Amino acid sequence: MGSAPATVGEIRRAQRADGPAAVLGIGTANPPTCMAQDDYPDYYFRVTNSEHLTDLKAKLTRICKKSGIRQRYMHLNEELLAAHPDFTDRKSPSLDARVDIASAAVPELAASAAAKAIADWGRPATEITHLIFSTYSGARAPSGDRRLASLLGLSPTVSRTMLNLHGCYGGGRSLQLAKELAENNRGARVLVACSEISLIAFYGPEGGCPDNILGQALFGDGSGAVIIGADPVSNVERPLFEMALASQTTIPDTEDDISMEINKGGMEYHISNKVPRLLGCNVERCLIDAFDALGVRAKWNDLFWAIHPGGRAILDHIEEVLGLDDGKLAASRHVLSEFGNMSGTTVIFVLDELRRRRAVKKEGRHYRNGEAPAAGSGHQRGNAECPMPRPRLRASPSHAHGKQQSAAGLPYVPSASVDAIGDDPLVVVHVESDAPPRPWLAS
Ligand SMILES: CC(=O)CC(=O)SCCNC(=O)CCNC(=O)[C@H](O)C(C)(C)COP(=O)(O)OP(=O)(O)OC[C@H]1O[C@@H](n2cnc3c(N)ncnc32)[C@H](O)[C@@H]1OP(=O)(O)O
Q: Is 12-360+414-433 CATH 1.10.3720.10?
């Protein structure tokens, strides 16, 4: 006595979720050492014994002043540097030592953020089915995802995916991948963890190498984690952001504009000064394509925004070309100011900041100059407890159905990948094309 064999269609339906993926929990963490941006040029030239390079120091000072950054957190402190003086020399073969440190520190920082995301989600870590881990410091296997799974006590059956050297687009790409996993595997609960410590790319200043000076002014260390799943269990899980669409767009002929390379001395990167303009020139087209795919006509100022704050000038260009009102990018600017550019991790901090701002607004408190009241901030430094109350927000599906748009945002990614994240419904779009239907603006 058996039931009639299921059709392929029935099997397929049973395997997949009914509803859209949603962010069900968020956590962030930073290393304990905090560096004020105003003090950084003095600190950096002192610890690298480079005080004599006065022109470069003046340049770093100019960039720091214009960076929109107030402070950053760093794993590499003076004590660690004293134990590894060769880290200041780009030519010294220090990769092994850097990878040794990063292999332990990167997953540990991720575990701090993930533990908070799991607590925020409200279910046990053993119920996580998939893990996506993104870092630019992973130059070894077994890699950080395995160590993180072990630190958190995840199930041995958890499906692990490692994104290496994705840099800033690791955040958006991880969210997109998590959406696809969650919607295609009924009951899946995906832990996304992005974790970066800039130690792998720390060097002393060098004439003729302006990229290094820029990186020294921009990058900070941190980890962000989210839990993604569809069909939330009522009274246990709550959707913070629903994900309606995810896409990625690559601007052709930009291969040389942002690059990273591991060599015997660590990681070297190049960031072209064209980046802010490239993103500004192409952002509107990416947005229109993303919203067309949803059949939605959006007014940019009707949306909310979660852009990866790669640099102050990037936010300025996007704000200008889209004609965004003051304050629309406040969450991104706040995260840039308080943490710097933490690569793929940063957009998770922006989502957390948006949530915090909504909670503050809901409580009727006011913002001063676009800033939320003092951050007891929901994020963790080291193992400190998070003092923030958990906001209780629920998504409404109006946007996904093409009615009035209440929200959307864009984590930005290097060399042109864009992910749009909506307020109530969260829109994540993923498009890749070598032959775009309309010309791209490349300069
Ligand atoms: C795409 C992604 O989002 C992925 C990433 O996160 S990768 C990192 C992306 N970030 C960036 O590309 C940085 C964006 N740039 C900025 O935010 C700003 O240009 C900045 C803060 C660096 C400078 O501010 P600004 O308003 O442009 O000031 P400006 O006076 O024009 O420039 C200051 C100095 O920065 C230098 N500079 C600007 N961009 C540079 C770059 N990419 N590389 C090296 N130096 C750079 C300028 O040459 C200038 O040097 P001098 O003072 O010696 O002339």
A: no
